[in-house]
Amino acid sequence: MKDVAISVQNLTFGWSAQKPILKGCSLEIPQGEFWMLLGNNGSGKSTLLKILSGLLSPQSGECYVQQPLGFVFQNPDHQLVMPTVGADVAFGLVSEGLSWPQVRDRVQEALSAVNLLGWERRPIYALSGGQKQRIAIAGAIARHCPVLLLDEPTALLDPETQGELVEQVRSLVKSRGMTALWVTHRLDELDYCDRAFILEEGNITKEGPPQELKNYVIQSTA
Ligand SMILES: Nc1ncnc2c1ncn2[C@@H]1O[C@H](COP(=O)(O)OP(=O)(O)OP(=O)(O)O)[C@@H](O)[C@H]1O
Known about the structure:
Pfam families: ABC_tran (PF00005). One of its GO terms (molecular function) is transmembrane transporter activity. By secondary structure, this protein is an alpha/beta fold. Helices cover 33% and strands 28% of the residues. Helix 3 packs across helix 4 and helix 4 packs parallel to helix 5. The radius of gyration is 18 Å and the shape is globular.
């Protein structure tokens, strides 16, 4: 039996009492698996991820996520803060009080994991959208995060780069035993995940393997 990496029980949240977003939402993700979260616009997917990451507090319910967690935003320009690749990946390590050689090793390990070893001195502004997303993921790997939360990370990428990123995250999950929860609108991305959820009307209404969820979405939108 696998350990649970992410667990949510009866979560409720609303921006106002008149408009509840999550209405007793529950889910569980085993360690070392790649899951996706689908749902219509405004169904509360980003809100759920923000609660999982501690950016928002639920009104009620229980929430557990293995720590430290890494969060990858839709727009990488909202999270890359330093001028170069190496400085950005190292930035998240500041609070750990590591020695310089330890920081260098962590940065190299993380860049190697996303196939960007040797890119330390590259300026962030010169990277493509997909490369920036891989740097954001490298930041989480450098911090040795067991869990990655990704909020529509391919939304701003071209189709080829979208496929490369989702493939990369799948291979990180499988090779490093990480757990990832990936929010998406794109049904073709489901092919890469182990299982997926659908968030509707404030609750998880469906959970299952990718093909089953694809069929459900296609039938419900036909
Ligand atoms: N800061 C905020 N203040 C008030 N309402 C908000 C705020 N952020 C989001 N909302 C509302 O909460 C609801 C859920 O938003 P959320 O962004 O979680 O949905 P989503 O499923 O991620 O949507 P999308 O697929 O469009 O990204 C929406 O109705 C949204 O307008």
